[in-house]
Amino acid sequence: MIRAIQVKEFGGPEVLKWVEIDLGEPGPGEARIVHKAVGLNFIDTYRRSGLYPIDLPSGLGTEASGIVTSVGPDVHHVAPGDRVAYAMGPQGSYSEERIMPAKWLVKLPEDINDEIAASMMLKGLTSWYLLRQTYSVQPGEWILLYAAAGGVGLIAAQWARKLGAHVIGVVSTEEKRQLALNHGCETVLLATDDIVTKVRNLTGGEGVPVVYDPVGKDTLITSLDCLRPRGLLVSFGNASGPVEGLNLLELAKRDSLYVTRPGLWTYVKNREDLEAGCADLFKQVLGGHIDIKIGQRFDLCDAADAHRALTSRRTIGSSVLLP
């Protein structure tokens, strides 16, 4: 028997229950892993609440690092004793151990420790597809990044700086402003600032070619107003609630804007995509271009408290759950 967080009904953090479960042995294409650290991500709160529905009862979480203890038939790229991490696959990373499809496991370089790995896989691959796939950031461009002191924000800002971009970050507090300035942002605005005017001033009145916005409903119009003609709004989260009822005429009157709502599962559909994204991510981290900031650590059994801290925006950088 092992212990894990399970969800039997949608709701607030109180629906996260610490229970005992019987795992069994891995089947064909599967591996059993002992977790060393588990990643905490905002998308977990959407699945817990039912905004992104999952079949219940269910485990929660899709990101962790650990050690392979056994594998089933037809598993060849990992073996017992391998240090691995993952950011994809079925729900269930909020657990001491788990069995999962081995195709989503990636071997870890020696110089990336367990906590760093669990903090960077989902957020790092998200940054990879945002900056290299959804919109290919170019040297010299100004870009706007909301939640710049969050887990994705700190990674994406540093990566964008390495690509030669000028990053304008948006954060909620003075403490987060300094953190964002230390991690890739050239300029950092507070959410209470006149963001549109300041972005226009920084870009000579033109606006930015792309806005990366995980906030959602509360920042939609401001994000659109910061774009230059034919600019792209990348809405990749719902921290303030989902965007609903966008009138397409709003895009036309701001000079033919584009909007996309991407997801990692679209950009990492197979093993080839996963290995390409991880190779680029590991290169940035091992090369010293991206410093992974772990702002909070919680015991895995206290996942409800971790969710409360995350949704109240009391966290900075990445957070990990420790079994």
Residues in helices, as a percent range: 25-40%
CATH homologous superfamily of the largest domain? Medium-chain alcohol dehydrogenases, catalytic domain
CA gyration radius, whole angstroms: 20 Å
The CATH class label of the largest domain is Alpha Beta
Ends distance: 14 Å
H and E string: EEEHEEEEHEHEHEHEHEHEHHEHE
How would you characterize the overall build of this protein?
This protein is of the alpha/beta class and 323 residues long. It has two domains: 2-120 and 269-322, Quinone Oxidoreductase, Chain A, domain 1 (Alpha-Beta Complex), CATH 3.90.180.10; 139-261, 3-Layer(aba) Sandwich (Rossmann fold), CATH 3.40.50. The chain has ten helices and 15 strands. The chain has helices at 42-49, 114-134, 151-162, 174-181, 195-202, 220-225, 249-253, 264-267, 271-286, 303-311, and strands at 2-7, 16-21, 30-40, 64-71, 83-86, 97-101, 106-107, 142-146, 166-171, 187-190, 208-213, 227-235, 258-260, 294-299, 318-322. The longest helix is centred in the middle third of the chain and has 21 residues, at 114-134. It is globular. The two termini are 14 Å apart.
